[in-house]
Amino acid sequence: MRVAFPTDSLPIPCFMCNCDACRHTSGQMAFHTVRIVGVPQWVGTNKAVPVHEVLKAYQPPERKGVTQYFCPTCSAKVLVHVNVLENLQEEKPHLDPPNIQYQSSGGWPPRSLSTFGEEGVLNEGTEYWRVAGGALQQAEGVIQPVCHVHVSDTKDGGFAEQLLKVNDIDLVRYSGAIGSDQVPLGWRSPDLKEEQRDALSFYCHCRAISCTLSRPDEVIARLPTAPYPDLIFPKDTTRLAKARNIRDEKWWLRPSLAAGEPTRYLTGHCACDDTFKRWEATIPFVSPTQCDDPEV
């Protein structure tokens, strides 16, 4: 399918949503979409796509007027439909960033970042569609993340603590919707307990799948054997013999960056096409991981 954008205002400002619904329906630390013109259409035609028949719909109970659409085969979140009248009745409305005028030299930054987001702009009409940023064939020059919203849902800052800027633009961190109070770097919710729990729960939004992740056990966590992932040694540039991990390194275990804290599991952000198209990776960048191996 194809979608249309207003070409006279590229790149289009968009936000990184950190709300519970977006995180637990996408499986990502944050999720970003951008509003389109009209409705999704089939490639090469002007015919509208019967989205309700082609994709799987899901309506988060706490997000009034918001319907998310997923691929029935690979589960990628592709489209979001917003009913404006219903959406305005909830506490977390989908208000877009203002349509900022760009400077002629270099595009960004806009003429005033200090005044960005002071007042959300309501889109005209009673309904509209948004497309997932990671589902676009090309995002460069088309969309521009400019802020994080609903950071308070994360309790500890979440992805807003990691993704600080995109294309040299500092991302504003809003506690709620655009225009709400901003949260500083290093923010922690007063509801967050100081002591670290021994187990973390993870679940999909409807909680049909709910599991618990425990801390690495010194014995059990070292039992598996696995080749190196692409995160550590890129497949395109790594010899097969090395990728097989013949030394049986337990690469998934990493010491904490803070002295005295327990061992943790290795994590990373994948930016490959499979991740973008299948699971909707939300940000086109890779977070570097510290490693002492000189061959990395």
Automatic annotation (TrEMBL):
SUPFAM superfamilies: Mss4-like. InterPro entries: Mss4-like_sf (IPR011057). Gene3D superfamilies: glutathione-dependent formaldehyde- activating enzyme (gfa). It comes from the Eukaryota. One of its GO terms (molecular function) is metal ion binding. This is DUF636 domain-containing protein.
